[in-house]
Amino acid sequence: MQREVALIKQSLFDQGYLDEQFMELEELQDDANPNFVEEVSALYFKDSARLINNIDQALERGTFDFNRLDSYMHQFKGSSTSIGASKVKAECTTFREYCRAGNAEGCLRTFQQLKKEHSTLRKKLEHYFQLARQAGPKETARRPK
Amino acid sequence: MAEVLLPRKMEIANDPSKFGSPDPLHVLAVDDSHVDRKFIERLLRVSSCKVTVVDSATRALQYLGLGVEEKSVGFEDLKVNLIMTDYSMPGMTGYELLKKIKESSAFRQVPVVIMSSENILPRIDRCLEEGAEDFLLKPVKLSDVKRLRDSLMKVEDLSFTKSIQKRELETENAYPVHSQLKRAKI
């Protein structure tokens, strides 16, 4: 079971969903804090759901306040970076470029892509954490005490 | 007589806890991002620091007693060894917080580190000019935190070592007959 967990994790890295920052987070886990990464992840998805909602509403209004959109995306990119959400981070960067260019069409298109990546990552991480819990603490807790 | 006094003297000399040990560094971390707050708190705890985390510059100033209603009562004992703040925050930025801290007589000596996801040279320059101790690019690494901690501990160790030496001198003066016993201590 632990091997399956390890393989899933490896594929998340290989496919570019996660980057080294995720490993940095895992390094911070220990026996006393074995669920740290899962907790950060939960926080990230809660925060980002709120941001997505805000951006959706802003885009729906159709007025395209690029400064405000860029500000939301700055936050989104920040937390995506902190958790190692590589593909989501890339979409955030692209979105911000379109904001700076004042390209509404580009923003809308990119945002759809971003939501897709975000949703995919959430499902994959939920699956990963669920399996990791079942497999037992050995796989998730990395840092020796 | 000497045998009766000897164990007690040795105990004082050999038991470092009698002198106390250096307190862990107390770090005040400021970030409006919930994810980043959780992350920096963990980095600091793993590095054996005591951590206080707040979500805005305004709250940081309140914590330090530098808020709008400036109260100096009760804040003399507040020991903060390091302040780590995000740069981009709504309301007051980390840069503005840095300035306020450097303007205060109580806390201007406290090192302030700015964290930012953006590698903007003029921004970095401005912060360093205003007296920031360091500028860290996010995501902050554990090695960054440990490096900061180590350099600050050197300062703390120095003052701690000096206080140990002072105590030893005082103890020696209190027991001049037994001064040769001190050489037996670790």
UniProtKB/TrEMBL annotation, chain A:
Q: What is its main location?
A: cytoplasm
What PROSITE patterns does this protein's entry cite? Answer: HPT (PS50894)
* GO BP, sorted A to Z: cytokinin-activated signaling pathway; phosphorelay signal transduction system
Ranges for domain HPt: 33-128
A single GO cellular-component term from the record reads: cytosol
GO molecular-function terms, A-Z: histidine phosphotransfer kinase activity; protein histidine kinase binding
Q: Which UniProt keywords apply?
A: Cytokinin signaling pathway, Phosphoprotein, Two-component regulatory system
**Cell location:** Cytoplasm, Cytosol; Nucleus
Modification Phosphohistidine occurs at: H74
| Pfam families to which the protein is assigned, alphabetical | Hpt
Among InterPro entries, the record links this protein to: AHP1-5/YPD1, Sig_transdc_His_kin_Hpt_dom
Function description: Functions as a two-component phosphorelay mediators between cytokinin sensor histidine kinases and response regulators (B-type ARRs). Plays an important role in propagating cytokinin signal transduction.
Q: What is known of its domains?
A: Histidine-containing phosphotransfer domain (HPt) contains an active histidine that mediates the phosphotransfer.
> What is the protein named?
Histidine-containing phosphotransfer protein
TrEMBL record, chain B:
The record's annotation in InterPro entries points to: ARR-like, Sig_transdc_resp-reg_receiver
* Pfam families (UniProt xref): Response_reg (PF00072)
Primary location recorded for the protein, binned into one broad class: nucleus
The GO cellular component terms are: nucleus
The entry's localization annotation reads: Nucleus
Q: Which UniProt keywords apply?
A: Cytokinin signaling pathway, Nucleus, Phosphoprotein, Transcription, Transcription regulation, Two-component regulatory system
Please give the residue positions where the record annotates the modification 4-aspartylphosphate: D86
Query: Which superkingdom is the protein from?
Result: Eukaryota
Task: List each copy of the Response regulatory domain by range.
Answer: 26-153
| Gene Ontology annotations of biological process type | cytokinin-activated signaling pathway; phosphorelay signal transduction system; regulation of DNA-templated transcription
Q: Which family does it belong to?
A: Belongs to the ARR family. Type-A subfamily.
Query: What name does this protein carry?
Result: Signal transduction response regulator receiver domain
Q: What is the species listed in this Swiss-Prot or TrEMBL entry?
A: Arabidopsis thaliana x Arabidopsis arenosa
